[in-house]
Amino acid sequence: PTGNTQRSSLVCSPQEMGTSGSGQSDGLPAQSILPKILSTQIFVQLRSGTMALSITHTLDLEDSRPSERHPARYRVGLERILEIHQRHGTRMTVFVVGSLARSDPALVTELADAGHEIGLHSDQHIPIRDLGAEAFEADTQRGMETLAEILGKKPAGYRAPIFSLTPDVPFAPQILTDLGFEYSSSELPATHPLFG
Fold first, then answer.
1. Are 131 and 139 spatial neighbours (Cβ–Cβ below 8 Å)?
2. Is the pLDDT of residue 166 over 50?
3. Which of 39-43, 87-91, 99-103, 154-158 has the lowest mean pLDDT?
4. Number of helical (H) and strand (E) elements in the chain, helices listed first
5. Whether the predicted pLDDT of 168 surpasses 70
6. Residues 6+ positions from 121 with CB-CB distance below 8 Å
7. Could you tell me the CA-to-CA distances from 193 to 63, 164, 190 in Å, in that order?
C-alpha cells in the first residue's frame, strides 16, 4: 500500500484497456502491448451495511520484448493506463526497471509529475537467486541510484523481478533495508510457475 492511494471508482472495460476482451489489440497479443499489471489488491470494508472497495493498483514497467529487433511497445500500453487513471483521478505505484529508466528518463519524470509513486523493479530484471548476494546488492544499488538521479530522491519501494524474493534468498531483505528501502512489494501469496 502506498500513500498515493485514493478512493475512487475505477472500472475499465476491455475497450478502455485497448483490447477486445479476446486479448487482441492492434493486431498483437495484449500482453505485448500493456505493461504488466501484476497486483491489484481489493480490500472490503463494511460501513453501515454497505461495502466500500479500496483498490491499490501497482504496475511493473519493464521492456519485455522477445529481442532488441522488436520495437519497444511499453509506452503504448502505459499511455492507455495513464489516460484511465487521469480520467478517474486515481494514482498508482509504478515499479520501474532501472535500465528502462536510463533509456527513457523522461517517462519516469512524466509518471512522477502525474502523481504516481515510483518504485524500483531491479536494475536488469534478473531473478534474485540468479544473482547471489553481492550481484543483487550491486544491481539494486545501481537501479536505486538511477531513479534517485532522475527523481531527485530515492525510491521508497522495491519489487523483485518475477516476485523472486523467496526464502531461498535470505540475504535480500537485509540488503534492501541497508540500502534504505521503506517497503518491498515482492511476495506473491499464490501459485506461480517460477516463484511466489
1. yes
2. yes
3. 39-43
4. 6, 8
5. yes
6. 60, 61, 62, 95, 96, 97, 143, 158, 159, 161
7. 20, 11, 10
Contact 85, 119 (CB under 8 A): no
**Helices in the chain by DSSP H: which ranges?**
30-33, 74-88, 98-103, 105-113, 128-151, 172-179
- Supply the pTM of this predicted model: 0.73
Query: How far is it, in rounded angstroms, from Cα 91 to Cα 124?
Result: 25
Backbone angles phi, psi at 114, to 5 degrees: -80, 0
Q: By C-alpha distance, which of 143, 102, 149, 105 is closest to 123?
A: 143
What's the one-letter identity of residue 3? G
Q: What gap in Å lies between CA 146 and CA 6, rounded to an integer? A: 28
Please work out, in degrees rounded to the nearest 5, the angle formed at the alpha carbon of residue 142 by the alpha carbons of 101 and 140.
100
- 28 - beta bridge partners? 25
Among residues of the chain, what percentage have pLDDT more than 90?
47
To the nearest whole number, what is the mean pLDDT of the chain? 77
